[in-house]
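Board notes (copied after class):
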Amino acid sequence: MTTKDTDLPLRENIRQLGDLLGQTVREQGGAELFDTVEKVRMLAKDARAGDTEAATQLEQTLTGLDDHMIMPIARAFSHFLNLANIAEQHHRVRRSRAWAMDPESRPARGSLEDTLSRLASSTDPDALHRAACDMQIGLVLTAHPTEITRRTLLQKHNRIARLLDQQDRQDLTPEEREDLETDLKREVTSAWFTDEIRQRRPSPLDEARWGYAVVEQTLWNAIPRNARRLDRALHKHTGKGLPLDAAPIRFGSWMGGDRDGNPRVTARVTRQSCLLARWMAATQYERDINTLVDELSVQCMDEDLREKVGDAWEPYRVLLKRVRARMRLTIRWVEARLEGRNAPEGEVYLQTDELLTTLKECYHSLHRCGAGVLADGNLLDTLRRVACFGLTLMRIDIRQEADRHTEALDAITQAIGLGSYRDWDEQQRQDFLIRELGSERPLIPHHFEANDDVREVLDTFEVIAEQAAESLGAYIISMASKPSDILAVELLQKEAGVKTRMPVVPLFETLDDLEGAEETLERLLSIDAYRSHIGSHQEVMIGYSDSGKDAGHLTAAWALYQTQERLLACCRRQGVKLSLFHGRGGSIGRGGGPTHAAILSQPPGSVSGSLRVTEQGEVIQAKFGMPGIALRNLELYTTAVLEATLQPPPDPKQEWRDAMDLLAEVAAKNYRGMVRETEGFVDYFRSATPEQEIAGLTIGSRPARRKTGGGVETLRAIPWIFSWTQTRLLLPAWLGVGEALDEAYQRDLTEELRTMFQEWPFFRAFVDMVEMVLAKGDPEVAAQYDRRLVPPELRPLGADLRARFSKTLDKVLAISGHERPLDDFPVVRRSVDVRNPYVDPLNRLQVELLHRVRHGNEDDLRKALMVAINGIAAGMRNTG
C-alpha cells in the first residue's frame, strides 16, 4: 500500500508559479537576467544541501554583479517567496478541506467539533452552552513597521490565491484550465510590473484604511460562517444554539488611536478614523440590505410586522427598503463629516440597536409564518455581522504615555495657581485627582493657554467626548506605574465632558513595571472613588515587546506568567473580575506563535471567558488575508478560549516554579550582560544588521525610535527584532536561553525540565517556540554579514553569539527530545525547507547591498536594499 503524498499539490503549485515567474523574468528582463537568476537559484539550492564549492561560487556571483543587475535579481527572489507563501496558505486551506471530507479522519485538533466533543464529555450541557455564548474575544488590529508588503500587491496575491482555488476543481474543461493558467500569468506579470516599495511613508489614516479593508476582504463573510459552525456544534452537543445577538468575537483597532510615540496620530486623525470605520460599516450593510431586498419577496408575515408595514404586498421589502434608505443617508452623513461639510438632515443610524431591532423583527416574523429557512440564510448572516461589528466596524482604542497626562495636568495646576502637579508626590496627586473627580465645577479655565503637546492631549479628550460610545474601546496608558496614572485619565475624561467614559487600562510592559503591577492595582482598587466608578470589572494590559527587549524572551515570558497570576489573586481579593489584554506581536520574541497553544498555556483562571489580544503588522494579512485561513484562525480563537475557560491547566508544581526562577535569573543576567554591558555590542548590532537602513523604510507611520540617538534602549522592540530576523540570527528570541538551560544541566535539573516540557503547557509552548525560531535561524548566514560588514575588532563578538546560538539549539533539543528542530511540526519544517534556498540568495544580496550603500553608492542601490528586506521578511514570515 502506497502512502499518498499530501504535499504533492503544494509542490506543483510552487513549480507552476515559479515557472510563470521565470517566464515573466525572461520576457521582461531578457535572457541574461533569466540565466543569472537560474544560476543563482541552482547554486543556492546546492549550497543549502552542503556543497561548499557551490556556496563559494554563489558568493562570487553575487559580489560580482553590476549595480543594474542587483535590483531585478532581488525582485525575482522576493516575488518567488511571496508566491510560495500564497501557494502554502492555499495548501493549508486545501488540506483542511480534504481532512473534513475524509469520513475516516478524526476532527482536526482545535476545531469546534474536536473541542466541543471533548468538553461535552465532562461539562454540564448548560454550562458549556453558557460559556460559549458569554465568550468575549477581542482581536485588536494594530499598524506596525513590519507590514512591509504594499496593499496593492496584497490584493494581487489574493487574486492569485483565488485562481489556485479555482484550478483545484475537478470538472474543469481544457479551455477553462488554459484560461486559468493565462489569468495566473497575467497576475504574476502585473505583480512584476508593480513597484513593491512605497514612495511615501503611510499616514495613520492610510493604516486605518488598510486595517478596515481586511473586514471587507475576508472577515465580513468569515464572522457569520464561524458563528454558523459554532451554532451547529452547540446544537449537537448542548441541544441549544447561539443566540442572535451573541458575538463571541469582536474587533478593535489601534490604527488612528495609538499615539504612543507617534506624533502623526493627532486628535483629528482619531476623529477621521472613527468616521472612516462608520463609513466602511455602512457601505457593507447597504450591500447586505440590497441582497435581502432582492431575496425576501415574501408575502407572509406575523401580526407584529403587520403593525409596522400595514397590509403591504411584500412586507419585508417595504421594511428593508426603509432600512436601506436610512443606511444610504448614513453613508452621505459620514461622507459629509469626513469632508468637513454640513451633514444632511434626516434619520441616520447612530445606535446599533436600531438596526438590530428591525432585522430581528424580520427574522422572527419569517419563522412565525413558516419561512424560517429564509430567515436562517442571508438575514441571519447580517444579524451576526451587526452583533459583531455594530455600526462602527471596530472600536478604536486610544493609547498614550502616562507622562503626557502628567504634563497636561501640570500645566493646568500651574495655570490655576495650585503649583506643579509634576512635583507632587503620589499621595498628593491622588488626593487632588479624587477631589476633582468628585467636584462639579470645571477644573480647566475657559481660556486656557497651553503648548502644542498639552493642547493635543486635551484635544484628544474632546474628540473622545464627541464620539458615540460604540466608536471607542479602551484608553490604554503605556508606562503606567502608579494609581495616579489611571486616575489622571479619568479626570481628563470628566473635564472633557465624556458622557460614557472609556475604560482606563494600565499597560505594564517593562520588567520593573510587571513586577510592580500587583501593588499598583491593589492600591488603585483600594480607592473607594475609583471602585465606585468601575464597579466590578477591571481590564489590564500586559506587554510582550518591551519586556522581551528589556530582559530577554525567557525571563519576560516567566515574568508575564507570574504577573497574570498575581493580578488575578489581587482582583479575587478585591472582588473584581479581571480581563487581560495581551499586547502580543508577530515574532516569537514579542509573544507571537501558534494561537491555540499560546492561549492554552496561560495561567489557570487568566482566560475566564474573556481575552483581548493585539494582532500586529504582517500577522493581520497572514491570519486574516485569505477566507479559509481567516475562518480557521477565528475557530482556533473560539475553541482555545472556550477550552481554557472550562478546562484550564493545573497550577504548576513548586519545583517547576523554582526551576523557572532559576532559568529566568540566569537568562536575564546573560541577556543583559550581552546587550547592555558588553563593550561594542551596540556598534556590532548596527554594523551586522540593517537596523539603520530599516529606520528609513517607508513602511509605517510610527518612528523606529522613541527618542533620537541612544542605543538599544531607545529603539522600539519591533525594529530591534526585525533587524535580527533579517540576518537570520534572531537573537532576541533565544539569547540567554542556552546559558539558562546549561545552568539547569549543571544542577542536574535536565530530567525535571523534560517533565515540565511533557506536563506543563506553558513550558512546552515556550520550548516549542524557541525551537521554531532556531529552526528558522542560520548562524552561517549571519556570519556572512560579519565577514563583509563588521569591523575586524568586533567580529569576535559575532562569533560568540553564533556559538551561543548553536549551544542553545543543542540544549533545547535535549529538552524536547527531538533529533532535529520541528520534528513535532512537519508543516512548519516543510515551510522552512521550501523557503531556505530562496531566502539565502537574498541574504547574500543584502550583505552586498549594505556594503555598497555604506560605501557611498546609496542613491542607486537603496531601493534594491528595500526590495531585499521585503523579500527576506516574506521568507521569514513572522518578522516583528
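Comment from the instructor: Strands lie at 136-142, 249-253, 395-401, 472-478, 504-508, 537-543, 577-583, 610-616. Residues 43 and 51 are 9 Å apart (CA to CA).
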